[in-house]
Amino acid sequence: MFLSATSGNSIWNIQIPFSEEAKYWALGTSVFLFLIAICIMIWQIHRYCTQLTGSRHTVNSSLLDIRSAKDEASKNSQIPNYQLYFHQGELGPLRRCLSSNSDLASSTDSLWDVDKEDIQGTLRFSLFYDQLQSRLVVTVLEARGLATQTFSQSVDYFVHVRVLCIAVEDEEQQLTCVLQEWQTHPIKNNCNPTFGDTFSCTVTEEEMHKLTVRLEVRNFDKYSRHGILGQVRVSLKGLNILLPLEMLADLQRPKKDIVGEVLLSLKYMPTSHRLEVGVLKIRMVFRSSKVERALYARTKIVCNQCRIRHQRTSERTRWDVTVFNEVLIFNLPEAQIRECILTLSVYELCPRKRSKCLIGQLSFGKGENVEDDHWRLMMHALRQPVAKWHLLYL
User: Fold this and answer.
1) List of residues 6+ apart from 110 with CB closer than 8 A
2) Keywords for this entry (predicted)?
3) For the chain, which end, N or C, has fewer CB atoms within 10 Å of the first or last residue's CB respectively?
4) pTM of the predicted model, to two decimals?
């Protein structure tokens, strides 16, 4: 006991060998840190109270958002009436090119999944042909009154532009090829986006009457879900664009163009539940270029809107008729083979840049369309390959 008492007194009698100035510095530092801790605590309390107040007024804010959305829709309905600037005698061709629709098979519309009632909005753009440089200039100005997406709070809007050229034209079908395609920069969370992007490509005067400019207004959200809001098609046949011509057009239901053909072979083995898809030939219009390009086909099996299988062919150098002669094997039970849909996508690959772009697509399965006859023939001729040409759309 005596030893512990003496040790306690010795601890209290210890003096720190610091000067008075050092003690004041330590005291000031401790007071400063104490004030910082008090400020952080006050800020956290204020933040908590703010979040609590916001959660209490969620219902009121949602009602205000609905009212503001209605007010914005009423404002969007009053879109200013832009005028079209053109020379005398161009009104007739302009009306024809804005109201023209390509007559394609009804099977192509199912690939777009766009309801006519949901299409709304207008697109303003301009066209110009520079005779000195033999260049077609397309400027995407703005879009107004686009449809809003309720499934996501963050949506980006952009315009995809394609310049199509008629390669083969007959009474049965019209085969087109893509001369050039571009994409504007995306605009986030704005149903009235202003773009102002300009694109140009080299085109001769002899090709002008065969060209069609197709502009698609698209969107995608933070989950990478893409959608097409509408389309505008302008045929340059008989249209005078030696001076910049500004146009305003309503968005229409998307239509696809025939860009080629593919020869497919189908065979189903019911005992082993094996589906053999043979990609034999792909026939597309090939425009010569300095850069060598390659093609490959990618097939996928979709059952009840769920992708269950997918495979791709090897890469082949692109020609007018590209020969593959490859067989892709899928293991599918009989319950799925009677309800599934096969989709084939053709991609063009630039070996130098290692970039790819979609240049054609088809989809068929169990249905009533013309393309689905091949599927029914396969189911009636089991264990035997059945070959047939299919149209590719873009």
Assistant:
1) 363, 369
2) Membrane, Transmembrane, Transmembrane helix
3) N
4) 0.66
